[in-house]
Write a structure and sequence with these properties.
The structure is a single chain. With about 250 residues, the protein is mostly beta strands. It has one domain: Neuraminidase, CATH 2.120.10. Helix content is about 10%, strand content about 45%. It has three helices and 19 strands. The strands form five sheets. The protein has a five-stranded mixed β-sheet. A hairpin with an 8-residue loop joins strand 3 and strand 4. The N and C termini lie far apart (about 55 Å). It is found in: Vacuole. One of its GO terms (molecular function) is hydrolase activity. Keywords: Glycoprotein, Signal, Vacuole. It holds the Pfam family Str_synth.
Length: about 250
């Protein structure tokens, strides 16, 4: 039987992005959507790209690596950022996505033998690791494929890998929170990277359960190009590839 043609109004790129977001979020047991319009900015001086964040065991920090290769430490309000160390400059991450580079590897380093073992080859821009609370598996944010992979470290499936979560955008790191859940930062949604305009309500971060279910979606606003979400002591800290500040959002 011949299929009937459906006549509909054309959907603009912005409308398509919003529709894709609604379809994505409605398919999961979602607890909340927060619009990140009101958050504190820890402004950097003459540099951009506070891409990754970390705290020391005494609660100091955050520390962040920035685009010119330095690592900075937050000294507190009134004191701002101070140089802490010098690392190296970032590679051209956008080129890796566009060319479909799949030369990434997951490697294990043994500090006793000082040997490195390659566990997985052929990853498409692996861009962040997080280990589960019980150390039975680790998660890999694979940027080019817009997904998170799960690799078993213990148990009958040790050494095997599967897709843990499909994402609506390009992940740029994954961090475990104090409850054993996982925050995935979304650097760009798919339409943005293709040069089209997305509405303000695009997802910038997801909170995933230990089973890969979406628990929370944080939606855009002024905070864009998110590279990392670090939850610490009731506060979410946002890194970014190209913004001149670190975002701070109270839960």
């Amino acid at each position: 039987m011949e299929a009937k043609r459906l006549t509909t109004n054309p959907i603009t790129p912005a409308g398509f992005t919003l529709l894709a977001l609604l379809v994505f979020t409605s398919g999961f047991q979602q607890q909340a959507i927060d619009k990140l319009h009101n958050f504190e900015r820890l402004v950097l001086n003459s540099v951009v790209g506070p891409e990754s964040l970390a705290f020391d065991h005494l609660g100091g920090g955050p520390y962040t690596g920035v685009s010119d290769g330095r690592i900075l430490k937050w000294q507190g309000q009134g004191l701002g950022w101070a140089d802490f160390a010098v690392n190296s400059k970032h590679r051209d991450y956008l080129l890796a996505v566009i060319t479909g580079d799949a030369t990434g590897r997951l490697m294990k380093y043994d500090p006793e033998t000082k040997k490195v073992t390659v566990l997985i080859r052929g990853l498409a821009f692996p861009n962040g690791l997080a280990i589960s609370n019980d150390n039975t598996f680790l998660l890999i944010a694979e940027t080019s494929t817009c997904r998170v992979l799960k690799y078993w470290l213990q148990g009958p499936r040790t050494g095997t890998i599967k897709v843990f979560a499909e994402l609506p955008g390009y992940p740029d790191n994954i961090k475990r929170n104090p409850r054993g859940e996982f925050w995935v930062a979304l650097n760009q949604n798919k339409l943005q990277l293709n040069g089209q305009t997305a509405p303000e309500q695009h997802p910038v971060a997801l909170r995933l359960s230990q089973e890969g279910k979406v628990l929370e979606v944080l939606v855009g606003g002024a905070m864009t190009s998110i590279s990392e979400v670090e939850e610490n002591d009731g506060t979410i800290w946002f890194g970014s590839v190209d913004m001149p500040y670190v975002g701070v959002y109270k839960l």
